[in-house]
Amino acid sequence: MVEQRRSAAQRGYGYKWQQARVTWLNEHPLCADHLRRGLVAAATVVDHIVPHRGDLSLFWDRKNWQSLCADCHDIHKQREEHGRVSGCDVGGVPLDAAHHWNLPRGG
């Protein structure tokens, strides 16, 4: 028998979370992944940097939150959380900091 996934509210994403999400996005309106690449995109998702896996302390720890656009969350972040890290971010930039594309250009 396959276990059904609990509802969003059962996983902690009820009214209190929705209110916290709106406040967070008002204070942090830009996608953190895009900003790290020097780009700008509006954020629509409050992401848990370290997946909380039901740990309410981690769930509500605002130091564990980041704003992401839907593309960065749904493509990049979901792959990480499910152990399928791709070689590039959603913009095509290699994730490996040592990759030659990510090294400073010499003159």
What attributes characterize this protein structure?
two-stranded antiparallel ribbon; 4 helices; mainly alpha
Description:
The protein has 107 residues and is mainly α. The chain is built from four helices and two strands. The chain has a two-stranded antiparallel sheet with strand order 1-2. The longest helix is centred in the N-terminal third of the chain and has 13 residues, at 15-27. The mean pLDDT is 82.
Mean of pLDDT: 82
Total count of strands: 2
Helix content: 25-40%
Describe the strand arrangement of the main beta sheet, using strand numbers.
Answer: 1-2
Low-confidence stretches: none
What fraction of residues sit in β-strands? 5-15%
Largest sheet entry: 2 strands, antiparallel
Radius of gyration: 16 Å
Terminus-to-terminus distance: 62 Å
Helix-strand makeup class: mainly alpha
Order of helices and strands: HHEHEH
> Can you tell me the overall shape?
globular
Number of helices: 4
